[in-house]
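Hi P.,

Sorry for the delay on this. The queue was packed all week, but I finally got your sequence through. Input first:
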Amino acid sequence: MLNLRKISKSVGGRTLLKDASFTVNYSDFIALVGPNGAGKSTLFNIILSRDSADAGEVQRDEWTTLGFLPQEGEAIGAETVLEIATGKAGLLEAIEQKLQELEGSGQIECAEYYEAQSKFDALSDPGLEAKSKKMLRGLGYKESDFDRAAKEMSGGWVMRAHLARILAMEPDLLMLDEPTNHLDLEALLWFQQYLSNFTGAVLLISHDRSFMDDLVKVVYDIEDKNLISYKGNYSEFEKEKEKRFEQRLQAWKNQQKEIEKNQEFIDRFRSVASKAAQAQSRQRQLDKMEKLEQPKPTRKLFKIQFPEPTRSGQRVVSLKGVNMAYGENVIYNNLNVDIERGDRIALVGPNGAGKSTLIKIMAGELEFQSGERDLGHNCRIGYFSQHRAATLDPEKSVLDECVDAAVDLTSDECRGVLGSFLFRKEDVFKKTKVLSGGEKSRLNLVKFLLNPPNLLLMDEPTTHLDMISIDALIIALSNYGGSLVFISHDVNFIKKLGNNVWHIKDGNLTKYAGDYDYYLEKSGGLTDARAAITK
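Then the structure:
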């Protein structure tokens, strides 16, 4: 289906790929992994002919159709959700024009023409609208949303409409760049079930460990500018990569011992007449030896014992008879909930159901129409949202912010913690005013962990983190001695940390006194996702 041979690519004077090769076969499910900036998105652009390689070639079956979902959507005009999902928002016309241009220039027997023709046929299919509506429903849209202008909706919902279009076209190869970023858990379950039945091939970039573990069969790792293949899912890849590193390290150590032994013999006997010939022979052996490079260790988690928060009372916070509405849109009616010391509650449910609203009410960040919010004895709340830039001093460095927040950590220990959250080397000396939104979010996360309150309220804390950083956060929160209420669409994060699940939908809050697997079993969430695929 797709074959990349000896691809080399440099960007801004930095070599990302050198003689890298890989193959995608029909029905493969492949994850492309590597640290941020390793070249994953660049490789996608080369495959899509949006960028060109400095050397090497991309070979693709002529009739193979690609469906590509980028991380960010295209500009929104006046099109409706359904027009995006059916390709009627300018895409069909653009493909038709492309076909006419190729036909006019006589280029009708080339891969570009074949793919354009296949996409035109798929978008012209009389059954496409029905397929698109099925995909939209699976991804969380209501029937009443189909004719809404897409520009009225958030970027995440628009991305779902683009995803629905790609799925409805049923391409031979799906190329997905962080496809779970904009999905709530219900849509994620449906999408995962859909892909488990997908007969084409999938090439995926993702930071969602659980998603990859459930679906991926092959992993290609960008390491030292090359593409290294591993069979199995992401967790199996991690184990095998560590095993290969240990083998390479041992081989390097053995060779170093051999070199040292021979060099010692040469230095000792090169001037001794009876041994000079042997010394010269060993020198020739050393000169001909193919020297192994010392393997670079895989990036490790930085583990540290964070300060223990002050102990709260048994009841941490209570909401009694809370009513909350945005205009005519009633979110909660007579809501009554209690958070107990030691609770670790995951809030789940569709986007817009009121999860973030509930956390803001608990945090005291949002006024409600009626009811009571009572804090328990010695309760100290920390609210983590994605909009905390104002809490940072623009003239302080990243390291200064960290040191000021730390209780008992040295500057070097703070640098180690920052390294686990992607602030490396000279990054720690940047002033906060030049940080990106994601960097500010990560820095605030570190500050939270260094001086934690006894009730953490966290809204999507894994956003902007790679998997190593997510794992570091999971370890930190696993050792955290306070209470935790959080929203996340990262299933692995929820499984590792949640001991209770609260499902919120249509103004109703249903409590499940167990972990995420217990919630799926009792709620029938997995069964519902499977049933939705067949409708």
